[in-house]
Amino acid sequence: MKLELRGITKRFGALTANDHIDLVVQPGEIHCLLGENGAGKSTLMNVLYGLYQADEGAILLDDEPQAFQGPGDAMRAGIGMVHQHFMLIPVFTVAENVSLGHESTKAGGVLDIDAARRRVREISARFGFDVDPDAIVEDLPVGVQQRVEIIKALSRDAKVLVFDEPTAVLTPQETDELMATMRRLREGGAAIVFITHKLREVREVADRITVIRLGKVVGEAQPTASNQELAAMMVGRAVELTVQKDEPSLGEPRLVVDDLTVVDEAGSKVVDGASFEVRAGEILAIAGVQGNGQTELTEALLGLQERVRGSATLDGRELVGRSVRQILDSGVGFVPEDRTEDGLVGAFSIAENLMLDRAHGEPFVRRGSIRRSYLAEFAKERFDEYDVRAPGIEAPVGSLSGGNQQKVVLAREMSRELSLLVAAQPTRGVDVGSIEFIHKRIVATRDAGVPVIVVSTELDEVAALADRIMVMYRGRIVGIVPAETPRDVLGLMMAGEPAPLGGTAA
Length: 506
Hints:
CATH class of the largest domain: Alpha Beta
CATH superfamily of the largest domain: P-loop containing nucleotide triphosphate hydrolases
Oligomer: single chain
Structural class: alpha/beta
Organism: Microbacterium oryzae
Strand content: 25-35%
GO molecular function, one term: ATP hydrolysis activity
Number of domains: 3
Shape: globular
Membrane topology: Peripheral membrane protein
Main location: membrane
Distance between the termini: 51 Å
Helix content: 25-40%
Radius of gyration: 24 Å
Domain ABC transporter: 3-239, 255-499
């Protein structure tokens, strides 16, 4: 089925998220939609899927105009969406999830789950998925859960498939399997829209590439285009994609973690006996699929977890048992993985956000009152140094793009004397131009002799920044390996395989 978008325009008040976008996807083609976060890719696909109504333009399938009032209309027309965050019921079986929403019934209105099982087996056999229709979804690996999402779409006879950032929660091996699946779907005649910001994946699987910037199509490219060319189209300028850093000048261990355990409310160990150290002037990158204890580990170091056992000493001083305020005042900088929830107050100005974790005393507060002139001077210096793109320091931080919000967080956390920097997902939702800037600042902090922990699900980022790599799986440290460890080895470790020779086993 041929998909065509003609002049799609979608406005939200004064913001034009999609500005007269044209897109054609042919049957048997993987068409990549590439752009920065906030460029308008997801808005465009939500229009296609019936979640939004376009203000202008038309959607055509095999040259026939469509008028979708909701996702149900889009699905009935042959459009399937594979979401970044799976739309599955964890306690249901595969067959139950696949049948959900378009259940077939036997006489008397009894659910015909056998029909759903047969459909799952049929699609699995056709595409080599090897999915058990009676398996409980929450017991399946993430990569298999994604196959269930694809089976759901195919069970509804989707001829156009939209993959929205599909590799965000996958290991490298699972990503390779997904790419193979997409190729098989293409060979079966499906028209595929692949939304991503990962340049390596684009060049690996796309037949054609359309680049969107600020809501407009700025050009098309072939998969033979270089990463530098694609990045320049996305951002509108040349971008340095390689992190430039010298060999580390290592000092003594400054952070020493010994048998650190974090227990959740249900009594399960979400961090299980973690032991490691970070030296002065070193970046230790923590790799792993999201949800394997990385978040809880970093929060334990910041005093944000309540049920913590074991030890974590920074320059000989115990962190476990101290308050968040005490830990921050000891010189720990923290870039949280969710900046909007944990890093910023959207209604506050840029200036006010820059003093958030130091609003209890000097130099920003004197005798209970904010020193406005000092804050303005400090904020203006950070605003310029970190190249924050905004009307000024009084702009509400919630009005900024994701990349500029992240710069505000970094400016606050790195503008004081640090004894440790913990940066969780430092470039999540950030465009390639801002990534370049953020990486330079992290490396500069390391070069100043500060121990740095970077947590990232992006293996390219891990490899670019790390002096050593620590891999976590189900709350345990699988191993600590050199920065040059191959991606496929890291991928196996992320799936629970032990560290290879040359690495340190947990």
